[in-house]
Amino acid sequence: MSQFQEKTQITRIERLTENIVRITLDSPDIASIAKPGQFVMIRTGNGKDPLLRRPFSISQTSNSQHFQILFKVVGRGTSLLAHCREGEYLSVLGPLGNGFRINCKSRNCLVGGGMGIAPLLFLAKTMLRKCPNTPPLVVLGARNREELTSLVYDFAELGLSAHTATDDGSLGHHGLVTDVLKNLDLGTNCTSYVCGPHPMMAAVHLFCKDRNYGCQVSMETNMACGMGACLGCIVPVTKGGYGHACTDGPVFDAKELVWEVK
Amino acid sequence: MGSEITSADLRVSIGSLNLKNPVMTASGTFGYAREFEPYVNLHRLGAVVVKGISIEPRAGNPPPRIVETSCGMLNAIGLENVGVERFISEKMISLQGINVPVIVNILGDTLEEYREIAKRLADVDGISGIEVNISCPNVKKGGVAFGTVPNMAAAVTAAVKESSSVPVIVKLSPNVTDITEIACAVEEGGADAVSLINTLIGMAIDHRSRRPQLANVIGGLSGPAIKPVALRMVYQVAQAVSIPVIGVGGIETAEDILEFMLAGATAVQIGTANFVNPRASEEAVEGLAHYVAEQKLGSIREIIGGLILP
């Protein structure tokens, strides 16, 4: 397994909204071997506080040279990253974990919520290359139009027209992504690739289970190391005990996980 | 790197265990060592201490298990491990031939369990030492009682020592009134060395949800935040016992190691820093070699306990 720890240069920082940021990093080692669904651990500063790296899924790679991360500013770590400047260096560990398993023989449906949309762009690009005859359906949800607009545009650039849902109805369906899914023609053989808030993934899992569709979910948890040492990033699994999001995931078959549906 | 640095004498001894340098990795922060191979030349470390092993496998605590705090982190992993049998048949097989001394951390709920696991490991090739965990704060019973009551600490030490053919290190809890009392008890019990400190019991609360941030409510604090406490305890214990002291707690760099050795530590363990910088241990070895060369020391051993008091 190839993994790298390296200083990578920030080549571009874009503010997609007031608090959603996209960073492009120059890292041929990581960009050339990363797979959709894999993640990196990034130090947000050089000091002792905040101490731990932050996990980010890889949202896109280009020319085996650069990769991108996409995040919302939610705390001190992400705030520090958002205030970095182009040309500065970040310490990056990766690529880590297991990615999505692309099934070209089934109808594919990418379902993303909020920042969970990030890894799906990389997945869509890879799918279009690997399964050119069966472009995936894309269903994206977010709080509002502002959050979703530029992300929808990224998929449009690949020739994929996303179905959308927003909490406030300002773009697409007013409600949940599962409402949108119910109205799509997904056929009898479909695989969903899901990343987003836990309740959303639980709902999509149930939707797929009812119809006997495949469902892969990318789990986000607290984690300290990203490489199987801290044992912090656990998710309950149906066979008993826990799986580790970093080394067993972050992408799991939804049927292998225990879902607490509230 | 110059030859004077590669030839710097960094050797230290923990009882009959001779290490090429004083840098070990702390239990629970370095997996079963192979996880770190993409980043670290394992053979350049003094020793690796692998994740704590119990008689039966343990699933550990429910999530969330970790939370970041100022200059540190709290964890309540709950000693998740594969159990001694799978450790021997899977993990130990992969560790054999690793070319770095392997120290196995063990834990139990009863004296018998400690004795049993030490016996089970006694016939296994490739184990250079046993570290006895009598100090985990994250399990309801067992472990921690052995770490807080002097005669129980002595008894568990004697039980493990009796069943082991390799040096026995006892890892001490800082969550006691007087750590020197426990250190003296385990020395009496036959320990070849003590390592300290394990995590300090702490807590974090989310005021918005009014809930604890760990499912276990309380957890163990580690990282740079605890270094001053660890340094003080190493200093006190080093004066109280005549066996080697292994310093643990917030160590990230060669400079940190030098401070612990000046306080009296013979060797050290790097823990939480492995999560942040998986190369921390190897970089620390390089830093020590530079120091020995630069200061023209005959050996790193010259600085052990070399603190100059006011």
Describe the structure in your own words.
- The complex is a heterodimer of chains A (262) and B (310).
- Chain A is α/β, with parallel strands linked by helices and 262 residues long.
- Helices cover 23% and strands 32% of the residues of chain A.
- Chain A has two domains: 4-96, Elongation Factor Tu (Ef-tu), domain 3, CATH 2.40.30; 107-256, Rossmann fold, CATH 3.40.50.
- Chain A has six helices and 16 strands.
- In chain A, helix 3 (118-130) links the parallel strand 8 and strand 9 (137-142).
- The relative contact order of chain A is 0.14.
- Chain B has 310 residues and is α/β, with parallel strands linked by helices.
- Chain B has one domain (3-60, 77-201, 221-303): Alpha-Beta Barrel (TIM Barrel).
- Chain B has ten helices and 16 strands.
- Chain B has helices at 3-6, 83-95, 111-122, 143-148, 150-163, 179-188, 227-240, 254-262, 273-276, 280-294, and strands spanning 12-14, 17-19, 23-25, 47-53, 66-69, 72-75, 102-106, 129-133, 168-171, 193-196, 200-203, 205-206, 211-212, 218-222, 245-248, 267-270.
- In chain B, helix 5 (150-163) runs parallel beside helix 6 (179-188) and helix 8 packs across helix 10 (280-294).
- Chain B is globular and about 55 Å long.
Name its key features.
heterodimer; A: 262 residues; Rossmann fold; seven-stranded antiparallel sheet; seven-stranded mixed sheet; 6 helices; globular; B: 310 residues; alpha/beta; eight-stranded parallel beta barrel; 20% strand
